[in-house]
Amino acid sequence: MSRYIVIYLLFFQASCFSQVIIQGRILDEFGAPIQNAQVQASGWQLFSNQSGRFLLRLSESDIYQLQITHPDYFTTTHTWANQEVKKSPEGKLPDITLVRKKKGRVLFAFGGDVMLSRRYLESWFGETPLVRAQNEEKDARFIFKHLKPYMTLANISSVNLETTIGNFSAADSSSKGVLLQSPEVLLYALKWAGIDHVSLGNNHIYDYGEAGLITSLQSIQKSGLMYSGAGLDQTSAYSPAIYSSAKYALYSMMGWSGSDHADLVAGPNKGGAALGKLRQIQKFISMSAQQGQIPILQYHGGLEYQDHPTLVTENRLKIAIENGAALAIAHHPHRLQGFEVYQNKLIAYSLGNLAFDQFYPQTQLTAILYVWMDEQAFHRAEIIPFYLKGYIPTPATGQHRHEILSQLYSLSKARNTKLTASGGHAIIQTKSQTDTQISSGKMKAFHTNQKIFQLPNKPWHQSLKTITSSDPELRLRLGRNLIYGSDFENDDTFEHMERHWFTQGFRLLHNNNRDKPQNKLMSAHIQPYSSALLGMKDFRRVFIPDNPYTVTFNLQSKKDVQVRAY
Q1: Domain 19-97: which topology?
Q2: 500-521 pLDDT, tens per residue?
Q3: Where are the domains of the chain?
Q4: Are 114 and 354 in contact (CB under 8 A)?
Q5: How far apart are alpha carbons 349 and 329 in whole angstroms?
């Protein structure tokens, strides 16, 4: 008899034999109920009642996406996993707040770093490429499919295009360690998904020198996308993209000039990115403000893979605000950082990756940022959590949503900026709001043979104040999960599988039970003749030497097996 091991998690399968109840309440920004808001999900629609409440009965599914519309308010989309709905009493969702439409009020949507290079096009680790040469357009659209319901709702959407566009040889490249080039189909997929503007002021737009920049700019112009941040000389590189009757001026700049071997910024007679040191930021932002424009800065700089911005980045973004920028958005660290309302204007210190092939766990957690502007005045922001599942951006649910929003809550709170909840999203307003805390602020220790136990589930916008125990000898150490998706919770959602495991000798099983169709056992099933291997593809930037770590796993076997963890 062959041996087998099952690593398991219980979750739910779509079925026509069972239904789920989803209910909630729709409010305006002052907490008043909104009547007759249309709620659409899974082909069904209804309207909120006088109390702003709605109740849906849907066929059970892994994912539910609700779109809420009202002629007097901006449309919103929220996504939940079945696990979240099932855990909530009677399927109640957090209250969803809508933003009223108003003359002059504009909705911006921002995303982080985007490319279609390396693992999107090539077979790394034996994976199937996501963009196949014979199916480029369809495959590229699939990658941005789940962004489309969100980006198309904004008046103008912008992402950081961190790549050259075209097909270049090594002879064309600059002497950099990391070179990125993406096919032209990327631009058309972005346009299809609702993107209007791309930020080019970054350290990859000049990876293939002048030839690469010329080809990239020609392709962007042909696609119809607006752009700013790079050009064939300084004048064009610093020219902002103008939106809405010469009102909003969208600037894009990078924070350093490159290296001794690769000069990446534009000069008087040389192409490249717009350099964004203090002098340039002050000059161009103040110039636009004096001309009656409303400048918005996207800045590319800081240290990669860090939770906090560098002092240089923080200083430059605040200088931009002080010189007239209505909004400052940053990227380059490849992971989310916090937000700050500074002088009643919003700063986003890093929006992380939006479509990038890195698989370090923290780089897979990201967000779309909605910002409502009343002319030059910041009105409100909304953070929509997203998760890069196998390099594909998908709405974050469950564990991923909680990790993203709780982390941003802590990072922003440290800057005196408070995030509150609206449905599955977080919101930021200029006025201070009362912070919500756990009622008791305490967790009682309990007797257990296990050395490790999880903290109780809590809303992401609540803080754990103290932990007490009757045992004076008890020593506690708090930690955080470093490997997302290790419970296979979302492995087959959004029509795409995870890609961060290296596997040998096992396969994923979906053990369906027709008698109880709401139950599906998701497992990693190993049935080897001798051995099987399960591991992460890359440990870099995950584990720090000499820090204490814990690995836990659940195994089910019909006979004794030997397990080794490295």
Answers
A1: Immunoglobulin-like (2.60.40)
A2: 777 777 665 544 433 333 444 4
A3: 19-97, 107-229+309-316+328-429
A4: yes
A5: 6
